[in-house]
Design goal:
Two copies of one chain form a homodimer. Chain A has about 210 residues and is mainly alpha-helical. Chain A has a domain at about 75-210: Tetracycline Repressor, domain 2. Chain A is about 65% helix and about 0% strand. The first copy, chain A, is built from ten helices and no strands. Chain A has helices at about 30-45, 50-60, 65, 75-95, 100-120, 120-130, 135-160, 170-180, 185-190, 195-210. The radius of gyration of chain A is 19 Å and the shape is elongated. Chain A starts with about 30 loop residues before the first helix and ends with a helix. At the A-B interface, helix 8, helix 9 and helix 10 of A face helix 8, helix 9 and helix 10 of B. Chain B binds a DNA duplex (30 and 30 nucleotides) through helix 3.
DNA sequence: TTACTTCAAACGAATGTTTGTTAGTATTTG
DNA sequence: CAAATACTAACAAACATTCGTTTGAAGTAA
């Protein structure tokens, strides 16, 4: 499977097609900077453990100034979580539509998780850990989106079992083992590690698909 | 000091606080009650998201009263994390000393994790997620304890590979896959689930040792 | 001008904790 | 035995601090 570039990456780059026609909005995209730094801090100290003043210091402005770019602290959390949720869901849809074997589809999903964790780590961590602090309309929405994603993933495993590609294992156990196995990457992976991202993917896939025992 | 007129006036409260303490026969361990309820709340809303007043309401007393039983909010977190850490470490030592095969030792450790998560779920969750809010002398201690535990676990896997019981897989990947696979139990397991605790253990061990693929 | 950005100051609410005090219970003392 | 004492656990009130957020004024660039 060819891993595609992941949409909606952390930015740091204004997507404005500059050139010279419209030089008026020469923006240093402060908003995205706030979101990026927020994700880093939320990952590091948790949503509740991060104050707007902490965040402001990291961004390089006063706390009050940030309210010209974002509506509230809750909105920051919501934007981060929603972006990650959409990324997962759209990528799952892409993979579902391919013609590969179920084993390859599952492998592609595992690679997707690991790659996203490596490329967009802080945001993924926030979506994994701090989603529960979302305010109420969005909280339910997020949980539903996640449930749908899990259902889609589980369906692939089920179909793989039905097709004889997988062992007749409990689907929930397989699903959650895979989903959680991929989470440690966030705590473990450092760019300068002995393993490259692709090697890491290969090893995890081996472990999950063929198991530890000989 | 100025003695306050307390006569009458339950102060804005319609629900009578049920003043009289029970006769001396009953001695509820208030301290442990506080720790237990704290673990539940910390798991549910996080350490930072739980106020001492929240906790007090759950315990059934005022926030100030709890300070007769515990020294600080930080101490609560420390007591919970330390207890769990010691449990894991001593159980690992027990398993290391048995004469079983390495595969059986790893299986026993996996069972230990699952069982502890089921039997002592809230505390284990807190030790998994909120340890980073420990105050500084204890934070380093906790991280060291965890690192030692991981080293001991990794050694078992290494020896199992050397003995030919396991595939020559990357030890860190195997270790973290196992450790994380077991964490989802906390989010997933409900006492009234279709799977019993033992069945769950069996399925996870199968998944981890023999893998998903056929 | 107009539109946007920044910040110091302040807001009310909530935080963990301390204080002063009271009521019961256990223990010692006369 | 009863009276005096000490201890425990509970409470309301207040503490200083920090929180997220709003306000209003000043600055900047088109």
């Amino acid at each position: 499977m060819t891993p595609k570039p992941i949409a909606g990456a952390p930015a740091t780059e204004g997507a404005t097609p500059e050139k010279h026609p419209e030089p008026s909005s020469r923006r240093p995209n402060r908003r995205q900077l706030i979101l990026d730094e927020a994700a880093k801090l939320f990952k590091q100290k948790g949503f509740g453990g991060t104050s707007m003043r902490d965040l402001a210091r990291e961004v390089g402005m006063e706390a009050a100034s940030m309210y010209n770019h974002i509506k509230s602290k809750d909105e920051i959390l919501d934007l981060i979580c929603t972006r990650i949720a959409h990324t997962y869901i759209s990528q799952l849809a892409d993979i579902e539509q391919t013609e590969a074997s179920y084993a390859d589809k599952v492998k592609a999903l595992i690679r997707l998780h690991i790659r996203l964790m490596i490329e967009d780590g802080p945001a993924v961590s926030v979506a994994n850990h701090d989603w529960k602090y979302l305010p109420e309309p969005q909280l339910t929405q997020f949980k539903e989106a996640r449930k749908n994603y899990e259902k889609g993933f589980a369906r692939l495993i089920e179909q793989g079992i039905a097709a004889g590609e997988f062992q007749p294992i409990n689907v929930s156990v397989a699903l959650f083992t895979i989903l959680s196995a991929v989470r440690w990457v966030e705590l473990w992976y450092r760019p300068g590690r002995e393993l490259s991202a692709e090697e890491l993917e290969d090893h995890i896939i081996t472990m999950l698909l063929t198991g530890l025992a000989k």
